[in-house]
């Protein structure tokens, strides 16, 4: 699944029944979504320092999923994040030229 498809799936869970959807449960509780993101980030750091590639891949997927859910809980979309990244790419190009 692409990150775009994952973000669309998460957005479609807004207002869904929290009893049948983990995503809906987190979207209904933004602080819990933030807490889960923090836990997953720490788990990814631990696997990275252990050098376990398979476990890091799994934890990285958890991090991406929970990051998108946390952002969606605050109405921050993948488009918003991509726009921010695009603006940085432009800024960094300017900085690079200025440093030449
Ligand atoms: N990518 C995910 C995803 N990754 C993790 N999780 C859930 O997040 C919860 C917490 O994950 P953890 O790994 O922390 O689980 P844990 O029990 O703490 O296990 P450990 O890692 O600590 O050992 C679990 O219930 C996982 O099932 C996810 N739940 C949903 N998705 C995606 O979201 C879609 C919609 O899901 P629902 O909202 O559940 O329909 C799914 O089809 C998936 O594509």
**Global Rg:** 16 Å
- What is the ordering of alpha helices and beta strands? HHHHH
Largest sheet: none
Do you know the CATH topology?
Helix Hairpins
Proportion of helical residues: over 70%
Strand content: under 5%
CATH homologous superfamily title: MazG-like
Distance between the termini: 40 Å
Number of helices: 5
Shape: globular
The domain tally reads 1
Number of strands: 0
Ligands in the model, by name, code or SMILES, are: phosphoribosyl ATP
The CATH class turns out to be Mainly Alpha
Identify low-pLDDT runs: none
Whole-number average pLDDT?
93
Q: Which CATH architecture?
A: Orthogonal Bundle
Question: What structural class results from the helix and strand content?
Answer: mainly alpha
């Amino acid at each position: 699944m692409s990150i775009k498809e994952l973000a669309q799936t998460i957005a479609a869970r807004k207002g869904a029944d929290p009893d049948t959807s983990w995503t809906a449960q987190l979207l209904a509780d933004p602080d819990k979504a933030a807490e889960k993101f923090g836990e997953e980030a720490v788990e990814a750091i631990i696997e990275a320092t252990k050098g376990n590639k398979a476990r890091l891949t799994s934890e990285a997927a958890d991090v991406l999923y929970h990051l998108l859910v946390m952002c969606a809980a605050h109405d921050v979309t993948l488009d918003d994040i991509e726009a921010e990244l695009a603006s940085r790419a432009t800024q960094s190009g300017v900085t690079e030229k200025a440093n030449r």
